[in-house]
C-alpha cells in the first residue's frame, strides 16, 4: 500500500479543535439540566436541536466510506434518545431502546454501525477484565500512531531532562506492559556519556502483571547493557504512602502519565497532585485524551460520541472491517472506554475536586509547575513517525504553544506536554 504522506498543520491550535468545541458547529445553547422535575420532552427537544447539525453533516459528508441511509440516521437518533431516557432515570424506556439498538448495531458493520455497536456496549455492558486488554493494546499500537505518539514525545522530553545524569528514576503512574521503555533504553545505551543506572517504579492494578512487566524490562535492559532496577506497586498513585517511592540523592526523576479512559488509574486528583509536588520531578510527561469526564450524562454522551467517531474513522482508513485486530481493539479497548466515560462517576465526576477539564489547565494555574516546551525537533521527528501510517493525510499535528496535539482530520484526540516543578524536593522521599 502506497504511503500517502503526512501534512503538518502549520496554524493555530484552533485548527484542531478539542471535543469541548466540536466541529459540528452546534448552536449556542447550553446543556439542559437533568433534574428530576425536568419534562422529558424538553430534553428530547434539546437532543433534536443538537443532533440536527450532526445529521445534516452525515448527509453531506463526502469523505465518509459508508452510505448514509435511513437506518444509519435512525440508529444515531435512537442512541441519543436512549441517552435522554437514562439521564432522567427512565430505565424501562431505555431498556426497550437498547433492545432495538441491539438489532440495528453490529460490530462488523460499516463505520456508523460500529459507532452504534460500541456506543450500545458503552451503555449496557459490564467491565472487561484487565488481562483481556493486553493483546488489544499491542494491536492498537500496531494499527495506530496514538501510543507511539505518546511514547515518542515523552521519551524525547525525558532524554533532554536526563542529559549528563548517571542515575535516573522513572515513575510510571500506570505502566501496563511498559511498551515505551524499550525504545528509551536503546537511546540511553548509545549516549556519548554512557548509559545511566535506570530505576523504574511501575504502578498498576495487578502485582502479577507488574512482576511480568518488570521481568521483561529487566531482560531488555540487560541486552542493552543498562544497569536496571524495577519497583512494582500494585496500587493507585493517589492512594499510596509517598514514602513507598524511595528516591536516591542525585537522581534525575521523571514522572510519566499516559492517561486513558479504561479505568481510574491514579485515584483522587488532589492526592495525585500533592504526591507529584512532593516528589518534585525533574520532568513530568503528560499525555492526555482530549475527552472530558465531567458534566452531565448527556454532556458526556454527546462528547464521547464525537470523540470516538473520529477514532473509529481513523481505524476505518487503516484496517478493513473484517480484520480481527480491528474488532479486538474496538471490543476490548474502545467500548470499555466508552462505558467508563458514560457509566462510572455520574455526579462524582461533575464535582471532581474542582479540577479543570484537563490536567494541563490545572498545572498551568499552579504556580509550582512550569511548562517545558516540546522542541521543534520533537515535532519534526514525530511527523516522520506518523508517515508510517497510511493514509498519512488523515492525521494532523499542531505544536505552537509548547505542547503537541495529534488529531484525526479536524478533531484533536491526544495532547502531549512536559512540565517541571519550581520547588526543591524535600528529603522525605530520599534514601541512601
Examine the secondary-structure arrangement and name the CATH architecture of the largest domain.
3-Layer(aba) Sandwich
The CATH homologous superfamily of the largest domain is called Vaccinia Virus protein VP39
**How far is the N terminus from the C terminus?**
55 Å
Provide the domain count. 2
Sheet having the most strands: 9 strands, mixed
Helix-strand sequence: HHHHHHEHEHEEEHEHHHHEHEEEE
Family: Belongs to the GRAS family.
Pfam families: GRAS
InterPro entries: TF_GRAS
Keywords: Transcription, Transcription regulation
What does this structure look like?
This protein has 432 residues and is of the alpha/beta class. It has two domains: 24-131 and 298-349, no CATH class; 138-291 and 354-427, Rossmann fold (3-Layer(aba) Sandwich), CATH 3.40.50. Strands 1, 2, 3, 5, 6, 7, 8, 9 and 10 form a nine-stranded mixed beta sheet that branches. The chain has helices at 40-60, 70-87, 91-104, 111-124, 133-143, 146-162, 181-189, 207-223, 269-279, 297-316, 324-343, 347-351, 359-364, 376-386; strands at residues 167-172, 197-203, 228-233, 247-248, 252-258, 283-289, 369-371, 395-398, 404-408, 411-421, 430-431. It is globular and about 65 Å long. The chain is built from 14 helices and eleven strands.
